[in-house]
Amino acid sequence: MNNDENTHLKRCKECNRWTDGKSAICAYCGHDHDKVYREEVEKRKLNGDVSVPVLKINESDALWLKIVKKPIQVFQLILYALIGFLIYLSTAFAH
Ligand SMILES: [Zn+2]
């Protein structure tokens, strides 16, 4: 049972050496392992959450358009919450 040690190691994409997985920076070349992940998170923040395509209300929209869009948006959110709940139920019963 030597696996415990290996779980704390990860291979550096830059120099291909095994380095301490708990450290974000490679001990050999200084490559930042989490940089790609962090950049992806930043991108998602900038673009908004693309996984839930809820109708967007723009500041430039006319007032009547905002009034029309609001209930649709609320309905969509309720629908997604329901779908999420159903997925949760189906996975809960599958086990
Ligand atoms: Zn490295």
Architecture overview:
The protein is mainly α and 95 residues long. The protein folds into 2 domains: 1-51; 52-95. It contains 3 helices and 2 strands, in the order αββαα. A hairpin with a 6-residue loop joins β1 and β2 (18-20). The longest helix is centred in the C-terminal third of the chain and has 32 residues, at 63-94. The protein is elongated, with a radius of gyration of 22 Å. Zinc ion binds next to loops.
Concise description?
This protein is mainly alpha-helical. It contains 3 helices and 2 strands. The chain has 2 domains: 1-51; 52-95.
Characteristics of this structure?
mainly alpha, 2 domains, 95 residues
- How much of the polypeptide forms β-strand, as a percent range? 5-15%
- Strand order in space, largest sheet: 1-2
Q: From the alpha carbons, calculate the radius of gyration and give it in angstroms.
A: 22 Å
End-to-end separation: 29 Å
* Integer count of domains: 2
Mean pLDDT: 82
- Strand-and-helix sequence, N→C? HEEHH
User: Structural class, from helix and strand content?
Assistant: mainly alpha
Major sheet, described briefly? 2 strands, antiparallel
Ligand names: zinc ion
- Uncertain runs: none
Count of runs of 4 or more consecutive helical residues: 3
Number of E strands: 2
